[in-house]
Every structure is written in structure tokens, then in C-alpha cells.
Write a structure and sequence with these properties.
Length: 335
């Protein structure tokens, strides 16, 4: 019975994804460990260069699990008060390899608002594509005692569809606080492998996504001879895309070199958000290298049917030889 339930759950999500109905972007629990995916304002938010890799395995107990990964590189150009980056993202689901692939470039500019606050607007231009290997799928109506036969299910006329897209964002930060927003999919690319007409045509286009994020950091140095940094960071992320919205609330505790975090994700009382998951994080930070692992524990009706979600992040940054003109104290978390 449990196996049948998992199959039904996956079938619903799979059919919806192919048709492009109410599509949503993939999400990462460690969104600050994937900063270029969160907002282009984070491009170059270091004193030199940074590379990052993120992997997410969502709902591993389903017949067709959701695998998402990103690779990114960004650099800070001190002479121009600017940051630039590139990012690749691919999300894949099911035995038919239903996948969304994005590859883009980002730019951000940093300037002072006053003696305490900095401002960073950012832009992101990218190519996006949705594709599927439909011949790898086997449906119930194909299975017969004499072997497989052609399916009666309508096959999408397209195996892939691509287009260009644009996102923008802004980030304000001081030594203790940060707040920002991002608007994604302003060009609303067509992600459907089917053709829609009339009133249903809008179903083919990816909805605009709005994100608002922020938080604060409380820190202290070590005692006596050993300088052991310790900090607590409170943070939030709110996202709205089409009829769906979601709020992440949580905190990080850092004591060199360990990071521990806990998050709650959901919108209690709202059918579009509901109670989704509790997220637990364990990270390790040494010099310029960070590694983090998190697990999403479902608290919704999917408890016990999906297996939650596993996520791993890796980040390596190195400082330019030239000392920047002014230190930029950015309190944002790194996981």
C-alpha cells in the first residue's frame, strides 16, 4: 500500500511538470550556501574569487526522485566595485529524465548609502531549457502478457523547449543586518512541452517568482589567548511564485569551525504553503573551505512517504593578492 501511495504521488507531480501547470523553481534548504541561485546581488560578495557546488536529493523514496545540483563561480573586481559570476543549474526527475537546465551570467554593483549601510543591485541573464526522454517511460497501458505495446497517453509534441530569461535583485547590508529581494523569470519563458491555445496559453509560461530575505548576526570573539569566533544568526526567506508561497525561518550557531542550524519551512493555515518541513544543518568551516549537510524532515501529510531530502554544499574561496580599498563586512550566513 505504501508503495502504491508513493507511485501515485510521483505520478501527480510528474504529469503536472510535463504540462507546465503551476510550475515552480527547484529550492535549496541551504540557500545562503548557494548565493548566486538565491539572488544575483550575491555575485562577488567575497574579497576575491569563489567556487561552489550544491547537490539536493529530494524525496528519495519515490520511484522517480528529484535531483538538483548547481555549480557556480564568482569574482570581486575591486577597481570597479563590482562582482560577476556564472551559474549552472540542472533539476532532474523520474526515469524519463524530465529536466530543467539553466546557465547564466550575473553582475552586481556595490556602493555606500551612508557610513553604516551598503547597497548591491544585481542582474542575471540566462538561457533556460526543459527537456524529457519520453521513450524511457513505461506506462500501465503498455504492459501486456505478450510484452509491451504503444501507449495510449498523449506524447508531448516536443522533447525540449528553450528560451532566454532575466532576473534582478537588490541587497542592503550593514555589519549586523542584511535585507534584500529578488524577482526571477521576468521574461516568463515557455516551459511546456505541449502547445496551449486560448485561455490555457498562460499555463505554458513560467510564473514570476518573488523572494524577500534578511536577518541579523550576533557575534563575539574568543577569550584570553585563543581567539575563538562565535556567532548566532537569525534569518528568513519568503518566496511567492504563482499560487504558491513559502516562508523559511531559522537560525545558525557558529563556533569555529562548526556550524549548526535549524529551520522551519511552511505557511501554517494557508493551503498553498501549509506545513512543509523542519530542516537540520551541520556544517564545517576551515579557512576558505566550507562543507555543509542538511536534511529536510517532512512534517506534512507526506511524512513517511517521501524520505525527506538530503542536501550537500561545498564552497571554496580565495583572496586576491591586492588588498581591497575598504573592508566589506557582510553578515550573511554561508550555509
Amino acid at each position: 500500500m505504501a508503495g502504491l501511495l508513493r507511485t501515485v504521488i510521483f505520478a501527480i507531480f510528474f504529469v503536472s511538470a510535463i504540462c507546465g501547470l503551476k510550475a515552480q523553481d527547484p529550492q535549496f534548504s541551504q540557500f545562503y550556501a548557494n548565493p548566486l541561485y538565491l539572488a544575483p546581488s550575491f555575485a562577488g560578495l567575497t574579497e576575491g574569487s569563489r567556487i561552489g557546488a550544491n547537490y539536493r536529493n529530494q524525496w528519495p523514496q519515490l520511484p522517480g526522485k528529484f535531483i538538483t545540483y548547481t555549480f557556480s563561480y564568482d569574482h570581486w573586481f575591486d577597481n570597479y566595485d563590482s562582482g560577476a559570476g556564472i551559474i549552472l543549474m540542472q533539476d532532474m526527475a523520474g526515469s524519463g529524465n524530465l529536466r530543467t537546465t539553466n546557465i547564466g551570467v550575473q553582475y552586481s554593483y556595490d556602493f555606500s548609502l551612508n557610513n553604516e549601510w551598503q547597497m548591491r543591485p544585481g542582474v542575471h541573464f540566462f538561457y533556460t531549457e526543459r527537456a524529457i526522454d519520453f521513450d524511457k517511460l513505461v506506462f500501465n497501458d503498455q504492459i501486456t502478457p505478450g510484452g509491451q505495446r504503444p501507449t495510449t497517453i498523449e506524447i508531448p509534441p516536443l522533447s525540449k523547449r528553450g528560451g532566454v530569461d532575466f532576473s534582478t535583485s537588490a541587497l542592503m547590508y550593514s555589519e549586523q543586518y542584511w535585507v534584500g529581494f529578488a524577482v526571477d523569470h521576468l521574461l516568463r519563458p515557455n516551459h511546456s512541452l505541449y502547445e496551449f491555445e486560448g485561455d490555457e496559453a498562460s499555463n505554458a509560461f513560467l510564473p514570476v517568482k518573488y523572494s524577500v530575505f534578511g536577518g541579523t548576526k550576533f557575534s563575539r570573539s574568543g577569550r584570553l589567548i585563543r581567539r575563538l569566533e562565535e556567532s548566532v544568526q537569525l534569518a528568513f526567506l519568503y518566496k511567492q511564485q504563482g499560487p504558491f508561497n513559502q516562508l523559511d525561518l531559522g537560525m545558525y550557531w557558529y563556533r569555529n569551525p562548526l556550524v549548526v542550524g535549524a529551520w522551519y519551512r511552511g505557511m501554517p493555515g494557508l493551503s498553498s504553503g501549509g506545513q512543509d518541513a523542519v530542516v537540520f544543518l551541520l556544517g564545517y568551516k576551515i579557512d576558505q573551505f566550507n562543507i555543509g549537510y542538511s536534511f529536510d524532515f517532512p512534517v506534512s501529510q507526506l511524512l513517511g512517504s517521501t524520505g525527506g531530502a538530503h542536501e550537500i554544499s561545498l564552497t571554496y574561496s580565495w583572496t586576491s593578492i591586492r588588498i581591497p580599498k575598504k573592508p566589506r563586512m557582510v553578515p550573511c550566513p554561508e550555509f
